[in-house]
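Input sequence (327 aa), recorded before submission:
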Amino acid sequence: MVGRGAGGSDGPARRWSAWQRPVWRWLAWQRPKRRRPEQRSPARQRHGWPRRASRRAALALALLLVAAEAVRWASIHPRNDRQWISEQSMMPEARFAGSRVDVSGIRCFAWQSPWNFTPCWTQRSYDLDALRTVWFVLAPFGKQWRGPAHSFLSFGFADSSYLAISVEARKELGETYSVWKGLLKRFELLYVVADERDLITLRTCVHGNDVYVYPVCASPEKARALLVEMLQRASALRERPEFYNTLTSNCTTNLLRHVNRVATRKLRGGWRVLLPGYSDQLAFEQGLIDTNLPLGQARERFRVNGRVARCLDDAHFSSCIRQADAP
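Predicted structure, token format:
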């Protein structure tokens, strides 16, 4: 037998307790009922169109603001005629003549603190046929976490002279570096060409960073191609300035591009390029570090902080810091 249920619909008979029936009726009464458009009150029908129109106006305003910001963003162009901080006030320039290159705007500051230094700019000539070695210099910013860091390359010649090239965010007077500002077209890109005493003592003695100077596996021909590539880019920025970018155009990503342009086997980026404090691990795994030591021992071997303090007044500073510490 099929009976009529308690709700009035056909179906199996349901037995309701004395308290279930009033609760069910109360819940059914509380449930909101959807009405057809023709059943809505005149006041609600009148207010429907303005509500939809206001939403459309808000969407149009948001799109307009996005378009205006896109136009403003596209109108921001890099420049070289700003008031720069002293240590980044000059841009290097390289002039090639056969196997020789004349480089002007080489920085050789003597640092006592970030605000106390002796400015010095010079011009030198180098014989590209005498280029012998390439060195990868890494300076992690933190002691506990290696992630954020600065890296640059140094080139060694047969006469024991060295030329270092550091890719940096160029700052104006009163401006400080910020990771977030580096994403927002706030810094121009600058290639600082300097001697090692300047760049390494700035990191070790002034900023207090650990500095590692790793020998790179590179033939003299590859070393020469890499140096020429970087000097040409440094000079090109004088006429065609570019913006620095924390993610896409920083110190390590630019080094990677230069290396890949002259390398036989291309290197991939990845998180160890975005966190350059681990870029020595990437170079070690790719066989680019000229050592037979495990990575941990190599880091200890090529850490130069103690040697920098000892060699600070040595006329042959670069050769001195490359001498292994006594066991």
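Checked by second reader. The first helix runs from residue 20 to 30.
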